[in-house]
Write a structure and sequence with these properties.
two-stranded antiparallel sheet, eight-stranded antiparallel β-sheet, about 280 residues, alpha+beta
Length: about 280
């Protein structure tokens, strides 16, 4: 036969788990989208249709929700991913490894002085906590990240000195809006005592470093943010950041007899610059 099955895996995607922790009258909410992907002794399922003892994807979905009750409350999404992999490998003789993707969506509690604050929340915009966990139930690789974090600084950014060709129309500027949506991913060392605390600390570093320097380019900001994380958090091995440049162009108000001293802008959608960089320890 001139063909071979070179790789295979299967699972259940987009399992949206919402857990309300009711241990006290002051409730907590955990809202996470979970993806399951398993690898193992699955060749004959593809080659001959032999489904003997393979876990159904519907079972994977039910496992996410069942273990969401027993293994996911106040702990981190990274630890939940480890627990899921350990379960799938332990309960199926045909599963060798698992890959779990998780994205936790932030909810913010009403201020404590508001009636009903013990059980009322609104959706936050501080970025999703993302994680990727893979392993065989005994050893794991863990990555985490920040997704969909909108940030903007209204000054302390410029872009000049770049190449000019016959197609260059972009003017050089030393004061512009820098707006973007942070998408960051980092790889952890072998073991981390508290993944949630680590993520919160990195989230704080990312925001502070984005704000605290003059940016000569989006590329420079990526490097500054990533190195600040690596310097402060020894548990991080490397970090990748992707920043779309959400352009804000100054509007010419002179046809209306008005001046525009850097106050009125048009926020454009497409096209936009997209800049990526990875920084790792040497």
């Amino acid at each position: 036969m001139p063909f071979e099955l070179s790789d295979n895996a299967y699972g259940k995607a987009q399992n949206r788990l919402v857990r309300i922790v009711r241990d006290t009258d002051r409730h907590e909410i955990r809202d996470v989208t979970v993806g399951v992907r398993l690898r193992g002794d699955f060749d004959e399922v593809y080659l001959s249709g032999d489904n003997t003892d393979i876990p159904a994807t519907d079972t994977m979905k039910n496992t996410v929700f069942g273990m969401g009750r027993t293994d996911f409350g106040s702990g981190s999404i990274e630890d939940f991913g480890k627990a899921l992999i350990t379960h799938f490998v332990a309960t199926s003789g045909r599963v060798a490894t698992g890959e779990i993707t998780l994205s936790e969506h932030p909810w913010v509690r009403l201020p404590d002085d508001a009636a009903g604050s013990d059980h009322t929340f609104y959706r936050g915009s501080s970025g999703n906590h993302t994680a990727w966990v893979s392993g065989d139930g005994e050893t794991f690789t863990v990555k985490a990240g920040i997704d969909d974090l909108f940030v903007l600084k209204s000054t302390a950014s410029g872009f000049k000195g770049f190449e000019r060709t016959q197609f260059t129309t972009l003017p050089e500027v030393d004061d512009r809006i820098l707006a973007t949506v942070i998408d960051a991913e980092w790889t952890y060392a072998d073991e981390v005592e508290d993944y949630q605390a680590s993520w919160e600390a990195i989230h704080d570093i990312v925001l502070r470093r984005f704000a605290d320097h003059y940016s000569d380019s989006v590329q420079q900001t990526i490097y500054n943010v990533a190195t600040a994380v690596l310097e402060a958090r020894p548990e991080v091995l490397e970090m990748t950041i992707e920043l779309p440049n959400k352009h804000h162009n100054l509007v010419d108000l002179s046809p209306f007899g008005l001046e525009n001293p850097g106050e009125v802008f048009i926020a454009t959608q497409d096209p936009f610059g997209l800049i990526t960089g990875t920084v790792k320890r040497t």
